[in-house]
Amino acid sequence: MDYFFTEEQQFMKDVAKEIADKKIRPVAAEYDESCEFPWPIVEAIAEADLFRVFIEDKYDGMAGDTGVMNMCLVTEELSKACGGISLAFAATGLGTFPIIISGSEEQKQKYLPQIASGKKLAAFALTEANAGSDAAGMQTRAVLDGNEYILNGTKQWITNGGEADIYTVFCVTDPARGPRGVSCIVVEKGTPGFSFGKKENKLGIRASATRELVFQDCRVPAENVLGRPGTGFFTAMKTFDMSRPGVASQALGIAQGALDLAVNYSRERRQFGAPISSFQGLRFMLADMAMKVEAARALIYSTARWIDSSKGKRATMYSAMCKCFASDVAMEVTTDAVQVFGGYGYMKEYPVEKMMRDAKITQIYEGTNQIQRDEIGRGLVSAAAGRD
Ligand SMILES: Cc1cc2nc3c(=O)[nH]c(=O)nc-3n(C[C@H](O)[C@H](O)[C@H](O)COP(=O)(O)OP(=O)(O)OC[C@H]3O[C@@H](n4cnc5c(N)ncnc54)[C@H](O)[C@@H]3O)c2cc1C
Description:
388 residues, 3 domains, 11 helices, Butyryl-CoA Dehydrogenase, subunit A, domain 2, 4-stranded mixed sheet, binds flavin-adenine dinucleotide
């Protein structure tokens, strides 16, 4: 299918594919086992200028007018080889979007070029032990003291935690105002009072670092607040509008990777004197997998293009559709890929069991799929009310 990419997009996709094929795929299983952070691959991604693709040109980026779409294309290609390693890239996008959305000119000048060059990774810190889906229930506090905020609290399960240098941290600055009392503050690694908890041992995306961020009387300049104090929750929601197609692309890449392996295996594996691909029952499975993958891709690309071209408009419902649909597809397709491989698919010697484990998280983070369905339902009902 021709999705009419620009020349630049085709180029960045090709570059990402080369990194996926030559640098990620050969080591994906090792990283899955060791859980080490994939710094050599992050460096290759940086050298290939791929951290620039979602950052505006004037801050050393090369997003042009298609930053979200670019982000999706690169994430998809990298995720075909490993959904955990690709996350170092995608989560940097997630951590950067609050700066792109709500940062002042000075803040953008300060942080975006460092991220664009790949010298510094970013991370997005919203979740806490008692504030997951109900993120507005967060308890991390920031109290203004002169021209500094003093932060206290703990963020949980932060991707790129400990490895990133730049953290967009959501905290309560005015407890009386509920979600309108939440602010987003940039906190840099190395700030006194900012430390990291244990690295989580996970089912999948094991090359990705998932850690606690601990703030104990951590003093941060008040000028690090993104936008006006109290607008943090709005920034978080707008971030998700831009980032959920990225999670969807991670899911899409994992699903496509599994489908490709399943098709190839079906041609090689022989039973009853014939390749298993000759059995119609198996071909039907492959056909269902391929239809779902292509439908996810079409939804993601059209949503990403719409977000890029309708700057400022809320895309909540369609972003939620992308994330929810593509992640459900990834779970189904990777599970079916294991089935196509039979018993071999269940073994660690073959890559499809890892893909099934990696796919699962895409149904959970950046809002579980129950929360996405809720968003979609709300969007439908409020659109209908607007038509009344
Ligand atoms: C590996 C990993 C990486 C992560 N990375 C980050 C990160 O970088 N930054 C960050 O801020 N967070 C991150 N998270 C946190 C993630 O976004 C949350 O786990 C997710 O939002 C769900 O919150 P929870 O786990 O507390 O589940 P809960 O909110 O406790 O939900 C439990 C179950 O209840 C359901 N549920 C909850 N509320 C509703 C409702 N209203 N209607 C219907 N069902 C509901 C959920 O769908 C789920 O099935 C990460 C999590 C993991 C596991």
